[in-house]
Backbone:
């Protein structure tokens, strides 16, 4: 199994550009999450989904959008990129929530906005 | 916003030393606590999920304990090896948060020969 696959691994965006960070999992996990990690800070939750067609905001959702049309895919859209969105982005998934199972993380996308 | 605190922020030990770190969290509405190991340039990997007060979990030389009444968890590494060098994250799940983990900032461990 591939687990959680994130693409791209690296990207440089200019201010005002848009892009979509892709996340796919092949473990049939219902729960999926997007986190960002800034230096010296913990992982901050951007958006999450508890199943196809259901998404909700996390702690830092401004400037981002998500969709969950299938169980497997959970893309994160950045509209009008800003320097404050320079970060490392991690997608994660879990089976039936985090009470019994740990998250499986993707390898991350390092995004720089210049 | 939940406050999950980890200490120390970083730690430097010699090979063979045993070490431990602390994760502190608000004890009200506790549901589960996770520990992750995060090597540089890789993604976090789950070590333990703990749910009951007094839980003790072990994986090789790494073990963890949980005290939900006082709001802390300890992670122990016995006989540290250079390959244990990583950042160790704890994360809290509270009731009513729809399975959203709140992460601490981590303890960065460096083990040298």
Residues:
């Amino acid at each position: 199994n591939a687990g959680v696959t994130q693409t791209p691994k690296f990207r440089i965006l200019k201010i005002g550009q848009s892009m979509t960070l892709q996340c796919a999992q092949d473990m049939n996990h219902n729960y999926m999450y997007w986190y960002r990690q800034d230096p010296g800070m913990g992982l901050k939750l951007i958006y999450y989904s508890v199943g196809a067609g259901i998404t909700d905001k996390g702690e830092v959702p401004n400037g981002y959008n998500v969709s969950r049309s299938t169980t497997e895919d959970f893309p994160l859209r950045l509209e009008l990129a800003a320097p404050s969105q320079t970060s490392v982005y991690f997608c994660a998934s879990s089976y039936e929530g985090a009470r019994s199972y740990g998250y499986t993380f993707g390898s991350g996308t390092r995004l720089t906005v210049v | 916003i939940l406050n999950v605190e980890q200490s120390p922020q970083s730690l430097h030990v010699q090979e063979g030393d045993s070490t431990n770190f602390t994760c502190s969290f608000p004890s009200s509405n506790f549901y589960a606590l996770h520990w992750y190991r995060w090597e540089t340039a890789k993604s976090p990997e789950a070590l333990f999920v703990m749910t009951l007060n007094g839980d003790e979990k072990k994986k090789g030389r790494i073990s963890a304990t949980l005290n939900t009444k006082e709001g802390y968890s300890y992670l122990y590494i016995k006989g540290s090896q250079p390959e244990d060098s990583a950042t160790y994250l704890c994360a809290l799940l509270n009731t009513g948060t729809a399975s959203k983990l709140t992460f601490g900032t981590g303890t960065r461990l460096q083990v040298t020969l």
